C-alpha cells in the first residue's frame, strides 16, 4: 500500500525496557497529539536484511509493545521502530538504538530464604529466571546466562546497626557467631562482573 | 594444548560501554553485520576459539582501530585505550600460536574469511566504524566461552 504523506510529529523516546530479558518496546506519543493516535511496530535482527512487522502491535493506541518473544535469542542484537497515524496522516518511522538483550537488560534481586539456629543464619539465594514464553517452557536461570554472576549479601544486626557484607559465587552462605535472641536483616543483590550488571538489593 | 591469555575484559567492556551509543549511531546500516552474520561466532567449535580470537584481535588492531578517529576527543581516548588492550592481548595470543597451542581449523578459517568479506564489502571508514560498534558481539562471545 502506498505510503501516505507523513506530516504527523514523530513518536518520541522509542526504547526497549528490559527486565530479566522481558523486552518491551516503549515510546511516548507525538508532541501535541491527544487521543486517537494509532501506531504500528516493526523490528529487525541486526545484520539480517529485513524488517518484520509485529501483527499484535498493528493499529494499537497504547504506547508499548511486548517484543520479548521476537528478541529472545540473546546472542543476537535488535532494532525496533514505531510509526504513528492520526486522521489520515502519519509520522516517520522512529527507531530504537541497537538493543543487546545480554547487556541492556535489568536484573531483579535474587530470592532470599533464611533459616537460623540460635547462633547462626543459613541463607539460600536463587537468581531470577530469564523471561519465557509460557510456564510450560523450560526455565533458564540467569545464572546460566551470566557465567560471572555473583551475590552480594548484607547482614544487619538490628540492635547494634552493625552490618556485614559478603560477596559469594555459590548460592549458599552460613553466618556464624551471632547473638542469640537478636533480630538480623538479610538482603542480597546480584552482581555480574562482565558485562557489568547489578540488581537492586532484595527487600 | 590450551592457551590462556590474561586481559582485563571488564576494562575493555567499560571503555566500550562508554562510547557504544556514539559509535553505533555512526553506523546507519542495519542489514549487515561484520561479525555475526550470516554465521554467528557462537556456532564455532571450542577447538577453533583460540585461533579465531587471535585472528579477530589482529583484525581489530590492523584494520579497525586506526580507521576510527572521530571529532570527539573523549571517544578517541576510549578507542585508543581499547586498542592498546587488544594489541597486548593479540601479541600474547600470537605467542600461543607460535607454541602451537592455538591451531586454526577449517571452521575458523572459513569464518574469518567471511568476516573479511563483510568488512571489504563496505568502504574502509564505514567498515571500521561498524566493526567497532560490534565489539560487544565479540566480548559477549568471549565471555560466554571462557
Automatic annotation (TrEMBL), chain B:
Highest taxon listed in the record's lineage: Eukaryota
Subcellular location per the Swiss-Prot or TrEMBL entry: Secreted
Disulfide topology: 3-96, 50-102, 51-104
Assigned keywords, A-Z: Cytokine, Disulfide bond, Secreted, Signal
GO molecular function terms attached to this record: cytokine activity
Gene Ontology cellular-component terms listed: extracellular space
Similarity comment: Belongs to the IL-10 family.
Role according to the record: Immune regulatory cytokine.
Protein name: Interleukin family protein
Species for this entry: Catharus fuscescens
Gene: Il20
Amino acid at each position: 500500500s502506498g505510503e501516505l504523506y507523513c506530516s504527523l510529529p514523530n513518536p518520541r523516546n522509542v526504547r526497549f525496557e528490559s527486565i530479566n530479558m522481558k523486552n518491551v518496546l516503549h515510546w511516548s506519543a507525538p508532541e501535541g497529539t491527544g487521543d486517537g493516535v494509532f501506531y504500528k511496530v516493526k523490528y529487525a535482527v541486526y545484520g539480517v536484511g529485513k524488517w518484520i512487522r509485529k501483527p499484535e502491535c498493528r493499529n494499537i493506541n497504547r504506547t508499548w509493545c511486548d517484543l520479548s518473544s521476537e528478541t529472545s535469542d540473546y546472542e543476537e542484537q535488535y532494532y525496533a521502530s514505531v510509526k504513528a497515524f492520526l486522521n489520515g496522516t502519519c509520522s516517520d518511522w522512529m527507531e530504537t538504538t541497537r538493543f543487546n538483550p545480554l547487556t541492556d537488560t535489568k536484573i531483579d534481586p535474587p530470592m532470599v530464604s533464611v533459616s537460623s539456629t540460635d547462633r547462626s543464619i543459613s541463607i539460600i539465594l536463587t537468581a531470577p529466571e530469564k523471561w519465557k514464553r509460557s510456564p510450560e517452557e523450560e526455565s533458564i536461570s540467569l545464572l546460566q546466562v551470566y557465567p560471572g554472576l555473583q551475590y552480594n549479601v548484607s547482614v544487619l544486626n538490628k540492635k547494634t546497626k552493625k552490618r556485614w557484607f559478603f560477596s559469594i559465587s555459590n548460592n549458599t552462605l552460613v553466618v556464624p557467631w551471632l547473638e542469640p535472641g537478636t533480630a538480623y536483616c538479610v538482603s542480597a543483590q546480584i552482581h555480574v562482573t562482565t558485562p557489568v550488571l547489578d540488581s537492586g538489593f532484595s527487600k | 594444548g590450551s592457551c590462556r591469555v590474561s586481559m582485563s575484559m571488564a576494562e575493555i567492556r567499560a571503555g566500550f560501554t562508554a562510547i557504544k551509543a556514539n559509535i553505533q549511531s555512526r553506523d546507519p546500516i542495519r542489514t549487515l553485520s561484520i561479525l555475526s552474520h550470516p554465521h554467528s561466532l557462537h556456532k564455532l567449535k571450542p577447538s577453533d576459539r583460540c585461533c579465531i580470537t587471535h585472528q579477530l584481535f589482529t583484525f581489530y588492531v590492523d584494520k579497525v582501530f586506526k580507521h576510527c578517529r572521530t571529532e570527539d576527543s573523549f571517544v578517541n581516548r576510549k578507542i585508543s585505550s581499547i586498542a592498546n588492550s587488544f594489541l597486548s592481548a593479540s601479541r600474547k595470543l600470537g605467542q600461543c600460536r607460535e607454541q602451537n597451542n592455538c591451531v586454526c581449523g577449517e571452521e575458523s578459517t572459513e569464518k574469518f574469511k567471511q568476516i573479511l568479506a563483510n568488512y571489504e564489502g563496505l568502504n574502509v571508514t564505514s567498515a571500521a566504524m561498524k566493526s567497532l560498534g560490534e565489539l560487544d558481539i565479540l566480548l559477549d562471545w568471549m565471555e560466554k566461552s571462557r
